[in-house]
Specification:
The complex is a heterodimer of chains A (about 425) and B (about 450). With about 425 residues, chain A is α/β, with parallel strands linked by helices. Chain A has 2 domains: about 5-225, P-loop containing nucleotide triphosphate hydrolases (Rossmann fold); about 270-415, no CATH class. Chain A has helices spanning about 50-55, 75-80, 100-110, 115-125, 140-155, 170-185, 200-205, 225, 240-255, 270-285, 295-305, 310-320, 330-335, 340-355, 370-380, 385-390, 400-405, 410-415; strands at about 5-15, 20-30, 30-35, 40, 65-70, 85, 160-165, 190-195, 210-215, 215-220. The two termini of chain A are about 45 Å apart. In chain B, the strands form 3 sheets. Chain B has a 4-stranded antiparallel beta sheet with strand order 1-11-4-8. Chain B has a 4-stranded antiparallel beta sheet with strand order 3-9-6-7, with no helix packed on it. In chain B, strands 2-10-5 form a 3-stranded antiparallel beta sheet. Chain B folds into 2 domains: about 1-145 and about 325-445, no CATH class; about 200-320, Sandwich (Jelly Rolls). Chain B is of the alpha+beta class. The chains are: A alpha/beta (about 425), B alpha+beta (about 450). The interface of A and B includes residues 54, 104 and 109 of A.
Chain lengths: ~425, ~450
């Protein structure tokens, strides 16, 4: 039971109609995913990522070899009860609404009614679909359906989460949220196996990656190790005078090395999120009559209002014990102020959350964006309880959470 | 079990929300009342009711059969095509649980709709006589001939093989056989002739039928002799005279004390149509014995023949109309269960259009199974070995919907007995449907859900 996922010479050959071997999608694959790590399966289109996942889940049967998931066969109910799977597209029953969808999947796990109801509400909250919970899923946009897809994968508080292209179809904010969520779950002791060809996503969240090509692993290892340029050094500092820069250059030259001085650039993702957030803030005074009126903007607004409760909800979903007290009310509801302020309050907070990340330009080798973690941690200090209600009470995975809570973080003051 | 139930409720929801069931329901809700008041039948209240019950139940049965096929096939093939099955099977759900869930869902939907529609048909049937202000006489006739469930006893077929053989040998000895005809043909003709003899009554002669196990529900009620005359020479007014004696003939024969009455009827009846003689049920002897005698008076001047089909039957009330109606509805339900299993089987390895076609073909074949079996038998006389070991078992695996048609029982107010119902249930559901379901489970378990065919 050393590995959460382990494959032994896993091979899948698709025959053609006549039974002749046609396509070798997975070729002698030996994959090991350790417990409590985020593992990324990368590769160009048609490299066998999705096939591997389908083999792990017994949606396809291997031509050769064997796959162990959580130490057993994924068809065994006690194993599959601990797996959460989000397929490459959200395959949902179009006639069910969001709440019924989650209820259906919850019932497949045989979750007791009370637990099910609680988890459904918390998950809807988390993915920001509470406002549209009674709309048929068939009318959802791709991104919204994706969120439901994610929620259904989390309904059983899985130990192993298998995500196939988790961020396709999501806007940058949704992408950021999913990435945050993956990191958060990993911190709580979950194992995540994700496959993607969006390298930025993988780079941000994964501990280890394997690059597939032609159904074989071409390269495998820790992201940090694979990407680190050991022959270079990056120094990040606040604004410096020309004089100081010159001095540094001299020192570097003294060390017999070259040096280029530039101002760090924001990532486009960061810029996008910043722009959307500030645009939204400007729209606030007219929020009574939302001018653009498109559904998506409503959706985003509703969602960011929930954002401040994200960690709280996560607490509810993933752990059960830490603090039994009832979750503190959100700042939004505490204030008896008119609607405008209601919306503004979380908005500022969101802005804060969103913008602080990029401020300290990320040093290249750092894999996990620090501010993200610190942000979640900060939120949790206020409301860590809801998430705790749901999780396994005895699980040691709560420890990291505690640590994260206590760790002093500088991210807050930046904004 | 919980996951089976979850799948089942989801299937029902699917059928209802995708409006498949909705369309069928609306169709029936509109058609049934319209039918009730637009089909006068033969003009009498009884005729109207018979027509309504017959058409109403047949239509309900047909539409529900189609619905069952569509829903069971659609539900599974759609899950596979739209890949929702990926998210379902990766949950702690066994494949057999998914199939059973789908099946349960379809059957529950059927039960729901069947109860609804049969309740409508039943209510309309019960209230029609009141609405039409049927007369006293008509009400009595309805009670006796429609709102009842009558058991039917037919005279046992007499085995004539021995007699035929003797006759044949005699003819052969005397050299009276037709030259050039084979033994089989001769025997066949002789058998027909002998059987006809047993059912024919020459002038001045009588014919006696003896029935055991006559068990009327209530001795104060009537039993009915239902008969049809055939004649060798049609009388000028197409009517036949006859004296009927009904009762325990052993009392007369052995001169014992009369315990039960013996009734005599002198009648004049139209030929080649069904007639019923009402006889008080106390004519039946204590040991459930009843004899029926027919005397062909010289007045007729023709041989009277009772045809094989419905020539003579003893009918008596054995159950109420309500119970019989419920049994008839159960018969429809059995049919639907079979079709649901068939749909699941087809969907387990075929795509939607092909599966639908496959099911409809089987459904139609089952609806005319009598004809199909007969034609196969007739067509394949030459290749009997090949046929009886290949095609015939497959054909026999089909259910026989036409043989157990519920209207065949309700229209003539015939008792649909529990043993018969149990037999149909055993054969159609416990054997045939289960075989289909097991086959479906087998295929589905070994099928690769995400299979890509290049």
């Amino acid at each position: 039971m050393e590995y959460a996922v382990e494959t032994f010479s896993l091979t899948k050959i698709f025959p053609d109609w006549w039974g002749r071997e046609k396509v070798c999608a997975v070729d002698d694959l030996n994959l090991q995913v350790r417990y409590n790590e985020v593992f990324g399966l990368l590769g160009p289109n048609g490299s066998g990522k999705t096939t591997t996942i389908k083999l792990l889940l017994n949606l396809l049967y291997p031509t050769n070899g064997k796959a162990l998931v959580l130490g057993g066969d994924s068809t065994e109910p006690q194993i599959s009860a601990r797996i959460g799977f989000m397929p490459e597209e959200s395959y949902l029953y179009r006639y069910l609404n969001a709440r019924e969808t989650l209820d259906f999947y919850g019932r497949l796990f045989g979750l007791p009614t009370k637990v099910r109801k609680m988890r459904i509400e918390a998950l809807l909250d988390m993915v920001g679909l509470k406002a549209v919970a009674n709309r048929p899923v068939g009318t959802f946009s791709k991104g919204m359906a994706r969120r439901i897809g994610l929620a259904q994968a989390l309904i059983n508080d899985p130990d192993l989460l298998i995500l196939d292209e988790p961020t396709t179809g999501l806007d940058p904010i949704g992408t950021r949220q999913i990435k945050d969520l993956i990191l958060e779950l990993a911190k709580r002791g979950k194992t995540v196996l994700l496959c993607s060809h969006l390298l930025a996503d993988v780079e941000d969240v994964c501990d280890r990656i394997a690059i597939l090509y032609g159904g074989r692993i071409q390269s495998e290892g820790r992201v940090r190790e694979l990407l680190q340029q050991t022959h270079k050094t990056q120094i990040t500092a606040g604004p410096l005078s020309k004089n100081a820069v010159e001095k540094i250059k001299q020192i570097v030259e003294h060390e017999d090395s070259d040096c280029v001085v530039t101002s760090p650039m924001d990532k486009l993702e960061t810029f996008f999120i910043k722009t959307v957030a500030s645009a939204r803030e400007q729209a606030q005074p007219t929020s009574g009559v939302v001018s653009d009126g498109t559904y998506i903007s409503d959706f985003l607004t509703a969602e960011h209002a929930e954002k401040s409760r994200r960690a709280e909800i996560l607490d509810k979903l993933v752990s059960t014990s830490i603090s039994p007290q009832t979750p503190p009310e959100t700042p939004a509801t505490e204030k008896p102020t008119p609607v405008e302020t209601y919306e503004q309050e979380p908005d500022e907070q969101l802005l804060e959350e969103l913008t602080q990340k990029p401020e300290p330009p990320k040093p290249k080798p750092v894999v996990k964006p620090q501010p993200v973690e610190s942000e979640v941690a900060r939120q949790k200090q206020n409301k860590k309880s809801i998430l705790d209600e749901l999780m396994d009470p005895s699980a040691p995975q709560n420890q990291p959470t505690d640590q994260a809570d206590k760790s002093p973080t500088g991210g807050d003051s930046n904004a | 079990m919980r996951s089976i139930w979850a799948v089942a409720t989801n299937t029902i929801r699917q059928a209802l929300r995708m409006k498949v069931a909705f369309i069928f329901t609306i169709l029936l809700l509109v058609l049934l009342p319209v039918m009730a008041f637009s089909m006068p039948g033969d003009g009498t209240v009884k005729g109207r009711l018979q027509t309504f019950v017959s058409y109403g139940l047949s239509l309900t049965s047909l539409l529900l059969c189609l619905l069952t096929i569509v829903v069971s096939v659609y539900s599974l093939t759609n899950d596979i095509k739209q890949k929702q099955i990926f998210t379902v099977l990766t949950k702690p759900v066994h494949r057999f649980q998914l199939l059973l869930g789908k099946l349960l869902g379809v059957i529950l939907l059927d039960v729901l709709l069947l109860v609804l529609f049969s309740a409508i048909i039943y209510t309309i049937t019960i209230y029609t006589p009141k609405l039409l202000n049927a007369g006293e006489e008509e009400l009595v006739s309805l009670d006796n001939e429609f709102f009842t469930a009558r058991a039917s006893l037919t005279p046992p077929k007499i085995d004539v093989t021995q007699e035929v053989l003797e006759t044949y040998n005699k003819l052969k000895e005397n050299g009276q056989l037709l030259p050039g005809s084979s033994k089989e043909d001769d025997i066949y003709i002789l058998t027909l002739r002998k059987e006809l003899e047993k059912r024919a009554v020459p002038v001045g002669r009588e014919l006696l039928w003896q029935f055991q196990n006559v068990k009327p529900l209530d001795p104060n009620q009537s039993l009915f002799i239902r008969f049809k005359y055939d004649v060798s020479v049609s009388p000028p007014d197409l009517n036949v005279y006859g004296r009927w004696v009904v009762g325990d003939d052993r009392q007369i024969r052995y001169g014992t004390e009369m315990k039960t009455p013996v009734y005599t009827f002198d009648r004049k009846d139209f030929i080649r149509t069904f007639h019923e003689i009402e006889v008080p049920a106390d004519a039946v002897a204590e040991d459930n014995y009843l004899a029926v005698g027919f005397f062909n008076p010289p007045l007729n001047n023709t041989v009277v023949i009772f045809p094989t089909e419905g020539g003579l039957e003893v009918l008596y009330k054995a159950d109420s109309f309500t119970v019989n109606f419920i049994k008839a509805v159960l018969l429809i339900l059995l049919r639907l269960i079979f079709l649901a299993c068939l749909g699941i089987l087809a969907a387990s390895f075929l795509s939607f259009p092909v599966a639908i076609l496959f099911c409809l073909m089987i459904f139609l074949t089952a609806t005319i199974s009598g004809f199909v079996l007969e034609s196969f038998d007739a067509l394949s006389k030459g290749l009997s070995g090949l046929y009886s070991y290949t095609v015939r078992p497959v054909v026999l695996l089909l259910p026989q919907f036409d043989k157990f048609n519920p209207t065949k029982f309700l229209v003539p107010a015939r008792l649909l007995s529990w043993p018969l119902l149990a037999k149909v249930a055993g054969l159609m559901v416990c054997v045939k449907a289960v075989v289909l379901l097991l086959l479906a489970l087998l295929i589905f378990t070994y099928r690769e859900m995400a299979k890509i065919i290049i």
